[in-house]
Amino acid sequence: MTIERLAGVVLLTGSLLFIVAAFLPISWVFGERDPEKKLEMINAALGSWKFAQVLFGAGAAAASTGLLFVYLHLRNSEANTAVLIAFVCSAVGAVLRAWHTYLRAVDPNEFVYRLLQPNWLAGAYFVLTMAALFALGIGLLKTEYQPWVGWMNIIASIVFILIAIIFGDIPPFVFYIITAITAVVLIL
After folding, report:
1. Nearest of 160, 154, 127, 125 to residue 142 by alpha carbon
2. Biggest alpha carbon distance in the chain?
3. CA pair distance 184, 186, nearest whole angstrom
4. What is the pLDDT of residues 125-178, one digit of tens each?
5. What band does 6 get if pLDDT is binned at 50, 70 and 90?
6. CB 11 within 8 A of CB 183
7. Which of 69, 85, 120, 126 is the least crowded, having the fewest Cβ atoms under 10 Å away?
8. Sign of CA dihedral 64, 31, 124, 101
9. Rounded average pLDDT over 21-44
């Protein structure tokens, strides 16, 4: 298996882990506005809640590892700096995501009432992940890949930032739809 395909497989695996976690029945908690109902949903399926948090953290970590392999694949090209920035942003974001999901798993009450400390972890993860998508897009435009792949990453990151600013939040599984598509391009 080439490093390019390995990058795609690992990136796709991480993306799918995160997307699966986002669509588990317990993840309907994120759409519930009433904190009491949220807590009731979590407590009724605490094992599922903790499992979903593991998948969220593992998905972010695996996708970041996939970007490391993308960097290794492209390190001798004009894309090396941009893809390295994408990897570093995603790696730091994955660490913050894992820390945040750990806190959500061990203290759902604090999560539900927005009292998790430090309270900046999720926001920093969002910003870093969108920066990683943007940098990856810039890097891919400097390669032999079809330009639409790079533009998809760039435009998606800008749209996601705008959505987050306008609505105050964005479901992070959308980041992983973009990385999954990018992964498929690397595999093929």
Report:
1. 154
2. 53
3. 5
4. 999 999 999 999 999 999 999 999 999 999 999 999 999 999 988 999 999 999
5. very high
6. yes
7. 120
8. negative
9. 96
SS3 sequence of the chain: CCHHHHHHHHHHHHHHHHHHHHCCHHHHHHHCCCHHHHHHHHHHCHHHHHHHHHHHHHHHHHHHHHHHHHHHHHCCCCCHHHHHHHHHHHHHHHHHHHHHHHHHHHCHHHHHCCCCCCCCHHHHHHHHHHHHHHHHHHHHHCCCCCHHHHHHHHHHHHHHHHHHHHHCCCCCHHHHHHHHHHHHHHHC
CA atoms within 13 A on the CB side of 60: 31
Q: Tell me the C-alpha to C-alpha distance, in Å, between residue 39 and each of 29, 42, 125.
A: 8, 5, 24
**Cα separation, 27 vs 48, whole angstroms:** 9
Give the total residue count for the chain.
Answer: 188
pLDDT at 161: 95
Helix pair 46-74, 121-141: axis angle to 10 deg: 30
